[in-house]
Amino acid sequence: MSDDVQRIAILGGGPAGAFCAIWLARFAAESGVRFDVTIYDYKDFEKPGPAGCNMCAGLIPGSLVAGLLSLGVELPERVIQRRIEGYHLHVRGGAVDLPAPAESPVYATFRGPGPLGMYPAAQEGFDWWLLSEAERRGATHLSKFVTEVRRPENGTGPFAITCRDGSRDEADVVIGAFGVNSNLVRVFEDLGFGYRAPRTVRARQAEIPLDPEFISRVLRNRVVILAMGRPGLRFAAITPKRQHATVTLIGDNPSQELLREVLDSPEIRRHFPKGWEPPERYCACTPRMPVSAAVNPVADRLLVIGDANISRYVKNGIESSFHTAMWAAQAIASGTTREHLRRHYVPPCHQAYLRDNAYGRALFRAHDVVSRSALITRTHLSVVREEQDSDAPDKPLSRVLLGLFIGSIPYRTAVRTAFGPRLQWRLLKALAQTAFGHLPPGVEAPHAAPPASYRAGLGPVGEAQTVVVIGGGPAGTSCAIALARARRENGGGPRVVLVEAKRFGEHHNQCAGVLSAPGPELLSLALGGAVPETIYQRRIAGYVLHGSARALRLDGEELGETPLALRRVELDALLLEQAKREGVEVVPARATDVEVGRDGVVVYTESNCVRGDAVVGAFALDQTMAHVFARQTDYRPPAALETLTCKIHPAGLDHIPGLLDDCIHVFLPRLGGIEFGALIPKGNHITVLIAGARLQSSDLDAFLTLAQVARLLPRQPEVEGYYKGAFPLGPARGICGDRYVVIGDAAGLVRPFKGKGINCALESGRRCAEIMLERGLSAEALAGVAQGQGQLLRDAGYGRLVRRLVMLTERFDLLDPFLVAADRSAPLRQALFDCVSGRTTYRDVVLRPSNLTWLMPAAKHCLVRMIGLDGSRRP
After folding, report:
1. CATH classification at residue 298
2. What angle do CA 159, 165, 166 make, to 5 degrees?
3. Nearest to 236 by CA among 212, 214, 277, 208
């Protein structure tokens, strides 16, 4: 190893260690310093249970996701166990819902591959994915158990690292990222530089298996927080995951007996299925949590990061690791002496957490006192409910509670807000009303009076009402299934009527038929069980981008996603059959008109009419129904591109292995009217698709005769049918009002230009049903359907920008220069893959800092192309 390369050993492969490796790669690129980073961690992140778990509830705040994006790292869908939509706070005086802050979404992940015995195959956990991201940026991961670290005797030589297998390594700099649950705490304390680990308390966790549909319908994708004033227990939390919930106890080293008491308590049981009993065996752990800062976390060329140094008091340990890792890497990039680290690493850690944690401890002590009084907690709940029912933007007590339990604001801010004079005056008035007014001790405060729209019959939809769904695609059927399932299981759902004229199997559906993550899980949730493997015709290995003279293969395994190809008619038939099994009444006719009135809706069909209390428009981009809704409501359909599709069978009806190398081939042809085209391999045929503003059959004929297309097809291919369709370019307007809502493609709530339509349809349909069941049929309630797809709405502008760039690339025949540049640039290959596959948002692709590494070389190749120096003709 040359003298200008620093060998850095990071002891611990959890978030702190992986974050530090990623930050070191970032600062090395900026400063020109060379690092050789090795991460030591013995955990097997591919094994379920304790062997691959870091014992954490696994909540990831949106601020951390934004921080990762600034590093060019995006949290993938496969790692997200569930999106948290809010919090259900249950205290002695009652309960209240607190929506998650719109500016800071929260994601539930699993730190390991999954609890023991709950998943048939290991799920990719957050820690495994983050460690892989560190390896992608040059770090080396050694699965070794470190038993000893020795400092150099002369102070200038390398550190000696001994592992349990007898191997010895050397390092110039050692970073302790081992956490407070590691054996390395004692190793570092024995090194003699004065390090003392933070004081800790133990939490207790249990992983409880639950039905995914129950989690979505009853827990409502909310974290349940129970602060019941029980001695020795500060609070308990139920965090929903994909197929289980994590129950966490925070208090004075809660015992196994206390956990059993909590699981058996009525407060917990009300959030579990009727008749539920705690399982005899379940995955459980007792992680230590730091409650103070470490002493002397630095020495010459040695420092400690993460919660083994300092973190936020009982909250946001992963985000604390992100910041301490950043400050450590930034300091190391400019010096590694003890004095340098004490000046540049320790102060930002203390400024961020040391003083704020003192406020946190005071705030929790105040909470401990308040939670023991039913009178005071009822008072607080009444104020929170007033805030939630108010349109005022400032909701101080709600902010304080969110800051206390989820860490959405600094503790110092929460304390100052809690003791603000205006809030204290409101609390005093509410306390007087509660104490002398109308509530005897022990009686929960009622919810605020329902809004006028509830009294008009627009409250949560019930069993005496009817919902009519127009459209039997994934959006319509997933909505109908969720509504009917609520009626079948607990009698609380409405009668559901679905109007669909197509006979799937006989009628074609104009769709590419590609399902990517988390589509299989969403489909399984809609079907209420396993998805038949026969529906999947092929796993797509990647994408091939074709220019006029070059092609570039983008490997899905390497770049992050291998979707599944299927036939839409088979998928739609499967979902429609499930809807019938759930009790949905299917009307096999075409809807012709709709009336939306104050007291109900009427849907006219070719054979009859259906009266109901609300209508769900899931009619895709059907122009007839779009015109009907636009005439009756404020709905205006989204702008759209036309598509033309056909099928080609190269070798009969049997499955064809390796068809098109199992890749989707994408083209930007210089043909008037065509924006892009694709060849998609299915089981025994190729689906050909082109998209443009005004397409004719001659455009598809011309596309099939292009040289780069024709060489992938059999000679004189037999083309089966031409089918015309469309897909939206952005969101529609007026997608909801009293008693009506439009979902799926008809609402334009999809990722434009790049698919994911099936995923968006399944998710929006399910969410629409949940909102009808929980919030009601008013315009204000149904607006939550679009709000739940906020990421898509925010991404629309970036999508339009990318579309304009693609059109310029096509116009000037500049794709080949980009393909040349991509051969030499991994960030450009990733950007191209993400644009084509829809793996992430356009915003992420456009704003990645790594774009700067390929932008100038690609621009140079484009300039050469445009002036003809590469031998090409000018456009």
Report:
1. 3.50.50.60
2. 50
3. 208
